[in-house]
Write a structure and sequence with these properties.
- There is one protein chain.
- The chain has about 160 residues and is mostly helical.
- Helices cover about 60% and strands about 0% of the residues.
- Strands 1-2 form a two-stranded antiparallel sheet.
- The termini are far apart.
- The structure holds heme C.
- Heme C binds next to helix 3, helix 4, helix 5 and helix 7.
- Heme C (HEC) binds next to helix 3, helix 4, helix 5 and helix 7.
């Protein structure tokens, strides 16, 4: 399955996401309790994947970038599956930038990769704002200290660096 197809399946709707996750290469043991991860766990993972995706793409390590994109798509799908209170529309708006990043990776197109990452990142923040979490401001990584893809200054002190 191509990366693009894979992303489309995951990102199209929360319903199809459920079956996609069930196809994970590493399913939990049968005896493991199917406890939902905390949403912040899923999101912290998404943050790390977003960070690695960026650096993999900047290094033109397209295999790694493709891998991180799949993990990130999976994390966003997990958030939607486990947390129905999150508006599905906020998740599905991530579909376009995810597919666009997949295209950029397939084409080895760094310029498109960077542009699509910015759109994706706006999607992260749009959902955070809509859910009363506007203070969790994600950015494409800067040269700052890790995690370099989050802005820690209060809103009032922020420049336009995201
Ligand atoms: C559809 C909605 C939605 C999208 C899209 C989304 N998030 Fe979140 N995110 C949330 C919510 C809701 C919380 C707050 C969870 C809580 O307070 O329990 C959150 C919290 C977080 C946190 C805080 C975790 C912590 O403990 O510090 C980080 C980091 C984060 N998101 C990263 C991201 C990144 C990176 C993306 C984009 C790749 C993203 N999020 C996209 C809804 C979303």
């Amino acid at each position: 399955m191509t990366l693009k197809k894979w992303c489309a399946i995951l990102a199209t709707s929360a319903a199809t996401m459920t079956s996609a996750i069930a196809q994970s290469d590493f399913p939990p043991s049968a005896s493991a309790k199917q406890e939902a991860p905390r949403l912040v766990e899923v999101m912290s993972m998404a943050q790390l994947e977003h960070l690695k995706l960026w650096y993999a793409g900047k290094a033109k390590n397209w295999d790694l970038a493709a891998y991180e994109l799949r993990q990130l798509t999976n994390s966003l799908a997990e958030a939607a599956i486990y947390y129905p209170a999150i508006p599905v529309s906020n998740v599905t708006t991530m579909k376009e930038p995810l597919l666009s990043i997949a295209d950029a990776i397939a084409a080895g197109d760094e310029r498109k990769f960077v542009a699509s990452m910015r759109v994706l990142t706006e999607g992260c923040n749009a959902c955070h704002s809509s859910m009363g979490r506007g203070f969790i401001a994600i950015a494409v990584p800067t040269s700052g200290q890790p995690p370099a893809n989050q802005i820690f200054q209060p809103l009032k002190d922020r420049g336009s660096n995201r």
